Request: fold
Amino acid sequence: MPLTVEIRALQNGSGSGTPRVRTALLACALLSVASGASAQVGSPAGAVPVDRLAARRAALLEAIGRGVVVVRSAEERNLEGDYPQDSDFRQDNDFFYLTGLESAGAALVLVARTDGPDEAILYLPARQPAKEQWTGEALGPGAEAAALTGIADVRPAERFAEDMARLRADTASPLWRGGLVLGGAVPPACRVRAVEPRCDDAFVGPALAAAGAEVRSLAPYVASQRLVKDADELKRLRRAIDITAEAQREAMRSASPGMYEYELEAVIEYTFRRRGAERVGFPSIVGSGPNSTVLHYDKNRRQTRPGDLVVMDIGAEYGYYTADVTRTIPVSGRFTPRQRAIYELVLGAQQAAIDAIRPGVSVQELEEIARRYMREHSGGLCGDSSCDRYFIHGLSHWLGMDVHDVGAYDRPLAPGMVLTVEPGVYLPGEGLGVRIEDDVLVTATGGEVLSAGAPRTVAAVEALMASGARERAAGAR
Ligand SMILES: [Mn+2]
Reply:
């Protein structure tokens, strides 16, 4: 899915802090994880390893230096009101990144000190047996939560306000001088210090009331960390991308003229779900003919016609990480000479950018490489001007828990970063749009295309579509 805004520096993720060893938190990592823990049973991705969670929290405290961090979980939605057709609870990404938990009504508190051990406290709502008979087992404060998170100190949510008041009284000057760092699913009315009187959130309200000092946003600190993926994140992301590549192959094998866009969407999302993806990372874009030129088209209502191109920009979400892979196919099974020429141009531009990926290169440089390729190879394909003029969105964005993942765009590439490479050319006058998008992991020496399982060359796409057509003719599909 393309970003429609120009890439620019969105955050400054720098934090000042004296390097210290975060022994207190790392020690918690030695706790064993309970098997079959109730809170994580529903996730095919399994629990985030405790040593990862502890390392993320330690790195965050290191960057913060001194202060009190409060990270708010997401809340359940109001089924009848807010989202009438969506009963899903989805955890806040930063809260999940630091705790691995899918609990609502929770908060994580981290205390960063320069003059003593750091602290981590997890607040969870007390269990309610009567409610659990309707909605299933919940994770309450106790040993299981401690084992899952590596946070030994787990307390009932009801104690939070009292603890905040005591924290202020105990450590008034030195601790709060580092400020309150607020993050996670903070209600809009609680985001600014000035509107504190209207903030009645059970966690954010008491934290704001207790903090006498500066309030900072946690977002840039965690964004800077999330930009470089650790081993568990890459495992989840690879799986999300594998599932999405399989969905692209299934769609290619199923496509034929006369199908509705939503039928292809159904093939795609069926594949996601049966492979354990819990939801789409973003609404599936299946745009045929004229809709292939609309960047974020997701109505998927049109009936395809012979000769149409179909842009399929899709991403499964697996274990809180989302893929983002686009393929453009000729619904009749063969590209016309004109479609093929535009397709080859976009593919060449994409490959030129992928070939340039290595540590130290910037996203802006990659975009310039792709655009230069288009300018040098457009010939007369787009009339008097270069086809680069019809490449109307950015080349790349970060990929991770969010499809347009967090992180500043002025950071040069480094190993462990994952980005999309997605040039496109859109000619609305002809109803002809082509976008090709892959997900690339930056390695020590270059880039690894994680989405290579989805056919990308003209020959590979046409061959797979032909095999699907043969299977249909034989009654096998
Ligand atoms: Mn994208």
Remarks:
- The radius of gyration is 25 Å.
- The chain has two domains: 23-226, 231-473.
- The chain has 13 helices and 17 strands.
- Residues 6-39 have pLDDT under 50 and may be disordered.
